[in-house]
Design goal:
Blueprint (H helix, E strand, L loop, with lengths): L3 H16 L2 H13 L4 H6 L9 H14 L1 H12 L7 H36 L3 H6 L6 E4 L19 E3 L3 E2 L6 H13 L15 E7 L10 E7 L2 E9 L5 E7 L2 E11 L6 E9 L2 E9 L5 E7 L2 E10 L8 E8 L2 E10 L4 E8 L2 E10 L4 E7 L2 E9 L5 E8 L2 E9 L5 E9 L5 E7 L26 H10 L10 H21 L7 H11 L11 H15 L5 H17 L9 H22 L9 E2 L6 H6 L2 H6 L6 E2 L2 H24 L1 H14 L5 H6 L12 H20 L10 H15 L4 H11 L8 H18 L4
Antiparallel strand pairs: 1-2, 2-3, 4-5, 5-6, 6-7, 7-8, 8-9, 9-10, 10-11, 11-12, 12-13, 13-14, 14-15, 15-16, 16-17, 17-18, 18-19, 19-20, 20-21, 21-22, 23-24
Helix pairs in contact: 1-4, 1-6, 2-4, 5-6, 9-13, 10-11, 12-13, 13-17, 14-17, 17-22, 18-23, 20-22, 20-23, 21-23, 22-23
Length: 794
């Protein structure tokens, strides 16, 4: 029997409560609970004294369990009579009895110390004694009842000496023996366990300390958790110069999540960092608010902006508001990034080197100018293509921003072009030395009509660091190079750590639904191991939906970052119709790279274009069927796995507004013609057809191409259903019969921006359905769009 630790802890807690006057504070609520007559409480405390104060009765009640220790010892002695004196069981019972007796004696002494200390505080109230009063502090002796004089003291001086178990107030050499005894008692553990065993001082504790020798923390005060003599766990450091760090420590250094405030030396404001730390430096994801008003959100390494991040400079009312989002290396813009210069109304999308535009890139302006090509030393320098709002195009050499200098070709909106040498700034007059050409009507413009984007950054090179950081969170140094099991473990650790941080920070609390989702994502989905069936495919799809909706999940953070950079690129000045092709290719690049991540997490998932077989039919049915008939049966088609089918429903709804805006700008003229025809043709009444038309055609209320195609299919089925109710059952539709009816439905639906919808479906449609039923229906819708534009009414 080893009851010493728990009993000693209980006795110590009761003693602490007594010393701090807790039972006096407890008397009033106890009186309200037990009523005016304390007989019940007296019976519970097994006390026969009369007129005992209620607080003393409570003390007796809480110390009551310790009065039974002697009875426990006697019970063990009685049990010992059932065994031979020489047996092991008898010896264990004897040892247990001895421990209970020693424990009872020790607890009795501890109670006397607590009562003695309590009466001391009660006898000497005041501010000085209140400042010394602590729960674990016990009085050993004091000079009011034990004579002690101070040498060389004044005649009328009054000295008071108090010795506690952990402090000495105005002590002198004559008390050295008592002090040594108190220290020896504390170090040997005689005052703690009652067994006389030496107890090591606690390795972990909470304390406050001011550093004097540490160069990094000199004259700084730390308050918080310690481990082996170093700050470890949650704590706070305050420097004399006003710096404050509040957060977690590890081995004496800031490590984990923390909040750091640093006064500015030039401004009467503070720099403020909130984010992750590693080995005493800002490292990981964080937010830095500068005293100048700038705000950086992104990755840090060694106290520098490093990785993907966004820097907001100034405000809309300031002299130079701007936003940069992209890659940083050692505190400088390096790699791919987007810079929105709000003052000049320009947006740059391209490569950077040491805070300067360097390499290939694209610039669009609020006045409709578009440039793609080379940049050097932060200027347009080299080969590039420049287009104005009216489609005037220059392709050739540049020396400065918007400055032509060298050989090139200038093409007019009507197709006429100059070829030669050009000098001058665009919009301020150009000097041309060369030839003028006016193509014939039947000339093929050669290379004049090449698509834009040739001189821009390839889509697979954009936001490379965003995907690299996601791979690193999975434990991979490079894409696809790592262990699958380790990746799942990193996901579970990241989710658990994030949930703990949100729990400890009230301002970051998650909703109940998010907590449940987070808990479900923390488990490693072992059921996904093995060949992928349709059931497992649906399970993977549901997991991805939840993961992408949770920003704390690596895939969710990736999705959130991609949405932010996409909107940053193609919203505002970036809503330029000439960026449509690049915007579509960027989405396709997202799908391919995310699909690579998904196949790393689920290695048994077929590659792009692979098939998942449909579940086999019931074996019993096969047994009962005729063998010859079975051979004639055509196999059921399986599901074709594609990145667009699996990921586009998750990604596209988030990117739909800026993407569709680009489609609407690109198809603006065609849609205006189409809409004018729709309004005109809808003035033609056709009551007979409206009588049996019961379908609602809303392509524009869905996001993904597959959803839009599903709406088209339902429309065809509804038309067929209505027509078949009026015709014979064996009637067979032909396209000649169906097309006019479907054309009428499209007209009556009055779909705005149908040309944009058609182009979006065509660009992002899953290749595996292009030649199937959905593909034929889409072709019919496309034909309706062009037919309406050219329909003539008389």
């Amino acid at each position: 029997v080893y009851p010493c630790f728990s009993w000693a802890t209980y006795c110590c807690s009761v003693g602490n409560f007594l010393v701090m006057g807790g039972f006096q504070a407890l008397a009033k609520p106890s009186l309200e609970f037990f009523g005016k007559c304390p007989e019940l409480l007296q019976r519970l405390a097994e006390s026969s004294e009369e007129n005992i104060p209620l607080s003393d009765l409570l003390v007796t009640l809480f110390y009551l369990p310790m009065r039974h220790l002697h009875e426990y010892g006697r019970l063990l002695l009685k049990l010992g009579t059932c065994f031979e004196v020489s047996s092991v069981d008898y010896q264990k019972l004897q040892d247990g009895c001895s421990k209970f007796e020693a424990l009872a004696l020790h607890l009795k002494r501890r109670r006397k110390e607590a009562e003695y200390t309590y009466h001391f505080w009660k006898s000497f109230p005041g501010k000085m004694t209140d400042s010394l009063r602590k729960p674990r502090r016990r009085l050993i002796c004091e000079s009011s009842n034990k004579a002690l004089t101070l040498q060389n003291s004044g005649r009328f001086s009054v000295n008071w000496f108090i010795l506690f178990n952990d402090a000495l107030v105005h002590a002198q050499a004559k008390w050295l023996r008592s002090i040594n005894q108190a220290v020896d008692q504390a170090m040997t553990g005689a005052g703690q366990s009652g067994a006389g065993q030496r107890v090591e001082p606690p390795i972990s504790r909470t304390a406050s300390y001011t550093f004097y020798k540490d160069s990094r923390l000199k004259e700084a005060t730390y308050e918080g958790r310690w481990l082996a003599g170093k700050p470890n766990g949650r704590g706070m450091v305050k420097w004399l110069d006003g710096r404050i760090y509040t957060g977690t420590f590890k081995n004496g250094l800031e490590d984990g999540f923390g909040d750091y405030v640093m006064p500015s030396k030039t401004l009467n404001l503070n720099d403020h960092y909130q984010g992750h730390w590693k080995e005493g430096k800002m490292h990981g994801i964080g937010t830095y608010k500068y005293a100048t008003g700038e705000l950086y959100e992104g990755s840090f390494q060694d106290n520098m902006r490093h990785g993907h991040g966004m820097l907001r400079s100034g405000t809309l009312n300031s002299s130079s508001p701007s936003v940069f989002i992209g890659q940083w290396v050692h505190d400088k813009k390096t790699g791919y990034g987007v810079f929105d210069d709000i003052t000049r109304g320009e947006k740059y999308m391209g490569m950077w080197q040491d805070d300067q535009r360097q390499g290939t890139g694209v610039i669009v302006t609020q006045f409709g100018l578009y440039y793609e090509g080379a940049f050097n030393n932060n200027k347009m320098q080299g080969t590039g293509v420049l287009l104005s709002e009216d489609n005037t195009t220059y392709e050739g050499e540049f020396s400065e921003d918007w400055t032509l200098n060298g050989k090139g070709v200038l093409t007019m909106p009507n197709g006429d072009y100059f070829e030669g040498s050009f000098t001058g700034e665009w919009g301020s007059g150009l000097k041309v030395t060369g030839s003028f050409f006016k193509p014939n009507l039947y000339d093929s413009d050669g290379d004049k009509g090449r698509a834009l984007g040739r001189l821009a950054v390839p889509p697979e090179e954009k936001w490379r660091v965003v995907f690299e950081e996601c791979w690193m969170r999975l434990g991979c140094e490079a894409p696809g190079q790592g262990e699958n099991q380790r990746a799942w473990e990193n996901i579970a650790v990241a989710l658990t750590t994030s949930r703990r941080q949100h729990r400890d920070s009230p301002e970051m609390n998650l909703s109940r639904t998010q907590n449940r989702m987070l808990e479900s994502l923390e488990f490693i989905p072992q059921q996904h191991v093995g060949p992928v069936t349709m059931e497992k495919y649906d399970s993977i799809r549901r997991y991805l939906i939840k993961a992408c909706d949770m920003p704390l999940h690596p895939l969710g953070r990736l999705m959130e970052t991609l949405v932010a950079v996409y909107r940053m690129t193609y919203v505002g000045v970036g809503a330029n119709r000439r960026l449509l092709l690049q915007a579509v290719n960027e989405i396709m690049s997202y799908l391919a790279r995310i699909f690579q991540l998904v196949r790393f997490l689920f290695p048994d998932l077929p590659e792009e274009g692979g098939a998942i077989p449909e579940p086999s039919s019931d074996p019993q049915d096969k047994k009962d069927s005729n063998c010859a008939d079975t051979q004639l049966e055509s196999p059921k088609p399986g599901r074709v796995v594609s990145s667009s089918a699996l990921l586009l429903p998750v990604l596209l709804p988030r990117l739909y507004p800026p993407l569709f805006t680009l489609y609407a700008l690109e198809k603006e003229k065609e849609d205006d013609v189409y809409w004018e025809c729709v309004l005109r043709l809808n003035k033609q009444p056709d009551v007979a057809l409206l009588a049996f038309l019961g379908t609602v055609f809303f392509v524009s209320t869905t996001f993904t191409p597959s959803d839009k195609l599903q709406v088209i299919q339902l429309t065809f089925e509804e038309i067929t259903k209505e027509v078949m109710s009026s015709l014979e059952d064996n009637f067979l539709w032909s396209m000649d019969d169906l097309f006019p009816v479907f054309l009428y439905v499209v007209l009556r639906a009055r779909i705005r921006n149908l040309g944009s919808e058609v182009s979006l479906i065509e660009d992002l449609m899953d290749p595996c359905v292009q030649h199937g039923e959905h593909g034929i229906m889409f072709t019919t819708l496309k034909a309706c769009y062009y037919q309406i534009q050219h329909e003539k009414t008389t």
